[in-house]
Every structure is written in C-alpha cells, then in structure tokens.
Specification:
Blueprint (H helix, E strand, L loop, with lengths): L9 H14 L5 H11 L1 H20 L4 H12 L1 H4 L1 H9 L17 H10 L2 H35 L1 H4 L10 E3 L2 E3 L6 H34 L8 H50 L4 H29 L2 H6 L1 H10 L5 E6 L6 H21 L5 E7 L3 E8 L12 H11 L3 E5 L6 E8 L3
Parallel strand pairs: 3-4
Antiparallel strand pairs: 1-2, 4-5, 5-7, 6-7
C-alpha cells in the first residue's frame, strides 16, 4: 500500500512563510533592537547638535589664536564624537564600522598640531555629516515613539475603552455620532491597532535601514590621494614576503630533507654493493637499518616543514587549537592566555600563528628568557597578540631580520607591530591585525 501525502505546492508554502514573516515582525528581536537604536538616537543626536554648535562657536572665534586651537581640537575630536554612533551600530544594528583614520603628524610643535587639525580632511568630512545627523536622529526617535504609541493605544483600546472622560458623548464623524466605546466597535479599533503594530514594525525597520546607510556614509573608509601608493607598497611587501618564504622553504629542503635523502641513497648503494659482491649479510642489514633511520628523519623534517607552511591543525581547529600545540613545543615555560570568540579570516589566523611561532623562537634563541607570556585576544575590530619574556632585552628591528619580516607580515594586512625591549628586559612585542566582520 502506498501512502500519498497531501503536500501543498512549494509556491504556497513560500507565500505562507512570507506572510508569517510579515505578521511576526512586531515580536521579532531585531525589530526591538532597531527600535532601541532609533530611540537612543535622541540623546546621541542632542550630543551631536551640541558638538556642532560648539564647533560653530569655535569657527566664529577662529580669528584668535585660542579660537583656532579650539577649532583644530574639535575637528580632530570628531573621531571621539562618532563613538556613540559606532556603539549603537555594533550592538543594536549588528553593523561593524571601520575606525576613522588617525590624524597624521606632518608638522612638529603646537603650531604644527593646530595646522594638522585644521587640515584634517577626515575630521571635516565627519563634521559635515554630524551637522544634519543630530536633527535627523532626533526626528527618527520622535517618529519611532509615534509609530509605536498610536497603534499600541488602538490595539489595547478594548481594555480601556470603558474609561471615558466625563461628559463623553461619542465622536462626530461626517455628521454622524459614533460611539467607539459601544461594542463591537472597540474590537474593530483593536484589530486596526494590531494591523498598525505590524505596519509600525516595518516602518521602524525601514528607518533603521536608512540610518544604516547614513552611518556607512559617515564612517566609510578614507580614500586619500595616496591610496594607490599605499596599495602598491603593500603589494610589493606581499610579493617580497612570498619570495622570502619560498627561499626559506628551498633552504630548509636543501639543508634538511635533501641531505637525509642523499644519505639514504648512499647507505642503500653500499647495501647493494655488498649484495652484488656476495658480502656479509649482517653488513647489508646494518646499511639498510641506517638507511631506514635516515628515511624516518627525512620524513620528520618534511612533516615539520609542511607544518610550517600552513599547519593542518590551524585549518581544522583555528588558533584555539593550534596555539596550545605551538606553545607546547617551546623549550621555555610559556603561559598562554587565549580569547578568540570568533575565528578571524585565514590570512589573519596564519599571520598570527607564524608571528607567535617566530617570537617564541626568538625568545628561546636570543633572549635568554626563563618564562614567556603569550596573550591573544580578539575584539570586534582587531586581533591583538602580545608576547612578553623576562630575557635580557635589547631586541631591535633590523632590515632583513626576523622582526622586520613580522612587521612586513602585519603591515601587508593593514596591521602593525610594536616593540618595547629596553636593555635588561623585559621584551614586549605587540601585534595588531585588523579583522572587522
């Protein structure tokens, strides 16, 4: 007996799914996050209006030295003014926004500091967006209150319709007296209110989408005239880094596995000559045994070399699985603090892994360290790793050295490396790799 199941057409299921999605919008968590985002726009917008007003005052007073310094400080401070917006976008809109570029120091002294602030293109651009953003954020907060309050009052009208003001005698609609507190009119008003709540949810979602576009435009990455040169420099660094990596692999093969394989061939050649000449079987066995040991050593070196190219455990388990194994191979005691809640990209992972490996090797080889502390933490904007040892200190970044290679690795991803290694120690090396997502 064949059982036939009455399955509705796919188009019907899709339409019903869309209908459920439309009607459930008022009770979805993201709708309330968007509402909170828009409501918080009122105090944030007030702060932006005050900031722009203070900047306007500084502009009017800019003919004085104090006024120019205040104006430069406010233009540079627009990055701080964007922090509330970035927090709202990250927590409530789930939108990761890039940090504005820092002000470049081009001129020394106080006069140079003021000149750099007044010519800060990024600061002026953000200030131009702050000018309409304050009133717009306040208007969106006010609209959010209205679109929720009015339908909510109508939806709950069947509950409070009995509480009419004294002397209430209905409403005059087109010359007709209408008593909305007489059943079934309260029920109809409640149904209209429920439909209004659905519409309000979608209005809020639309306002949040508009505000998302505003934030993306206000905090978009800077594109300066020297962007092509920066990209060209990073491309050249990546090419040089890849070439150095290939040369290291070639050197490791030449000095390690190739030497072992030559020794294997030589031992097997001796064993063959013993067999051809009718020599001692024990001598043949010794040559084969030596060749076997050397072959195993060659396999071990090839495995280590492959692990150095890109460890399989890094692909499978990420930094949380690969770094403990890397630390365990260090001959010096290592304390590892690891907090990587979300996996970064493969490029960031591999760069962090090789940076930790290189820094551990340097500390063990050159630093005379007795203890190493490694901390790897990821937040919304970057992956930060720090290696600290209690060695002799005095480390420096020299051209062609290992630390210079790490600097190139970090800068090729838009990151940076900081070195603090006074004579006598300790040595603290911090690597920051951007990984916003």
């Amino acid at each position: 007996m064949t059982r036939v199941r009455n399955t509705p057409p796919a188009r019907t299921r899709s339409a019903s799914t869309r209908l459920v999605g439309v009607l459930s919008a008022p009770v979805r968590a993201d709708t309330w996050r968007y509402s909170a985002h828009l409501l918080l726009g009122a105090p944030v917008g007030a702060l932006m209006v005050a900031y722009v007003g203070l900047t306007g005052y500084a502009t009017v007073a800019g003919l004085t030295v104090v006024g120019l310094a205040l104006l430069a400080m406010l233009v540079r401070g627009t990055r701080l003014a964007t922090w509330p917006e970035q927090w709202r976008a990250r927590v409530l809109l789930r939108l990761e926004l890039p940090l504005p570029a820092v002000v470049r120091r081009r001129s020394p002294g106080i006069v140079g500091w003021v000149r750099d602030g007044l010519t800060d293109v990024t600061g002026w651009r953000i200030l131009a967006f702050l000018l309409p953003s304050g009133p717009l954020a306040i208007a969106m907060a006010y609209a959010t209150v209205l679109v929720w309050a009015l339908p909510a009052a109508a939806a709950t009208y069947p509950v409070w319709c009995w509480y009419t003001p004294p002397g209430w005698n209905g409403l005059d609609v087109a010359g007709t007296r209408w008593h909305p507190d007489v059943w079934p009119y309260p029920l109809l008003v409640g149904l209209v209110g429920l439909a209004g709540l659905v519409a309000a949810a979608w209005v809020v979602r639309g306002l949040a989408a508009l505000d998302r576009l505003r934030l993306r435009w206000m905090l978009r990455p800077d594109v300066g005239p020297d962007l092509a040169r920066v990209l060209e420099r990073r491309r050249d660094q990546a090419v040089e880094q890849a070439g150095a990596h290939l040369r290291r692999i070639e050197r490791d093969l030449h000095d390690g596995a190739q030497v072992q394989m030559v020794a294997v061939a030589m031992e097997l050649g001796r064993a063959r000559r013993e067999l051809d000449g009718g020599g001692d079987p024990q001598a043949v066995a010794r040559h084969v045994a030596v060749a076997h040991e050397q072959a195993k050593q060659a396999l071990t070196e090839l495995r280590d070399l492959a692990r150095g190219i890109y460890p399989a455990v890094l692909t499978d388990l990420g930094l949380e699985g690969a770094l403990p194994l890397l630390v365990a191979r260090c001959p010096i005691p290592v304390v590892l603090d690891l907090d990587v809640a979300r996996r970064p990209s493969a490029a960031v992972e591999s760069t962090a892994y090789f940076c930790v490996g290189e820094l551990l090797a340097n500390a063990a080889k050159h630093g005379s360290a007795g203890r190493i502390h490694v901390a790897v933490v990821r937040d919304a904007a970057a992956l930060r790793l720090q290696v600290r040892d209690d060695g002799a200190g005095g480390a420096a970044i020299v051209v062609g050295g290992g630390l210079a290679g790490l600097v190139d690795r970090a800068e090729s991803l838009g990151g940076r490396l900081q070195l603090d290694s006074p004579a006598g120690g300790p040595t603290i090396i911090t690597v920051e790799l951007p990984c916003a997502s």
